Amino acid sequence: MTRAPAGLDVLRSQKVAGALVERIRALVDRPVSLMEVCGTHTVAISRWGLRSLMPQELRLLSGPGCPVCVTPVSGIDRAIAAARLPGVAVVTFGDMMRVPGSSSSLESERAGGADVRIVYSPLEALAAARAEPGREVVLVGVGFETTSPAIAATVVRAEREGVRNLSVLPLFKLVPPALEVLARVPGRPLDGFLCPGHVSVIIGARAYEPVAERFGIPCVVAGFEPVDILAGVAMLLAQAQRARDDSGKAEVETQYRRAVTPEGNPAALRLLDEVFEVCDAEWRGIGAIPRSGYAFRERFRAFDAVARLGLPETRVPDESGCVCGEIMLGLRQPPDCPLFGTRCAPRTPVGPCMVSSEGACAAFHRYEMSGGADGR
Fold first, then answer.
1. CA distances from 126 to 90, 141, 170, 189 (A)
2. Does residue 161 contact residue 189 with C-beta atoms inside 8 Å?
3. In whole angstroms, what is the distance from residue 223 CA to residue 258 CA?
4. Fewer CB in a 10 Å sphere around the end CB: N or C, the chain?
5. DSSP letter (8 states) at residue 88
6. Any idea which architecture 30-65+176-254 has in CATH?
7. Residue 188's pLDDT band (cuts 50, 70, 90)
8. pLDDT tens digits, one per residue of 168-183
9. Residue ranges per domain, the chain?
């Protein structure tokens, strides 16, 4: 079968997008607040100007969907403490380099002579450990359920190969428990969650059913193209309208059916359960969320960098004047922060939402400040 020309695909997408915008406008007859909980959605909404297409009464809020943004100061401080130890190489994904700890960052430590390396896959950390058996290699384990299986697989492989100089600083986060916290935030009712596509490939759409059933908040798992997001918004609004008309209840729907199933990825879930156990976790700007993180099971405890290297735990307040926590809770938008665009900018970030490329502040600053978006 002959494929349609690329230009025709674009025209079709534009036509579909236009129809979806009209449907969204028709469905909004009162103030509505929807929240995306995925950094990729956050960037796409800003990049494609989707906020400017929405009716005045519809607010698109950015939740804690960036794993870099929610990594606590104590976690950064532990990574820095590891980097300062003799004979230790800290390997990390690039977005973590500039995230501020209490007094430094991994980027600053590397500039001062520490062995801090950027990797693009956990397997690169394993390769580094193999290549330098006399050096302890510490992988900064940051990510949601999307990244965690790859790190779990790397640990299993290291155990099988007998690699003893690799450890992981576990800073993982789980999305569904965070949604329950967001659903309880006082003074900011939500009419729907736009749920993350990548995470949902692993955990499945059914993982959000307790949120929909317990809190009555519709959930839609959406893809990342502009048309995907617009379709997800329209599905959320239709659900909210049915609930108001007493003809329906909050449900979990999947727009991103080409990638997400109800049950998720069984192999990845088994791997996570083999290596990790669920634990409480600290979220930067939000606080402790019960059962929202991963810790190593006893069998793999030797790979825990905290226990292995005796990394200290610090307790420090969040950045003075930074409102990243309130932004991630949907209580404020990036321009509401007194530091936004002045003291806190992409080249001089104060808070994590400006550091990460998927942070709400960074996305808004890059795509919406010059585009005239009103920041609703």
1. 12, 13, 16, 45
2. no
3. 9
4. N
5. E
6. 3-Layer(aba) Sandwich (3.40)
7. confident
8. 999 999 999 999 999 9
9. 30-65+176-254, 73-175+265-309, 324-367
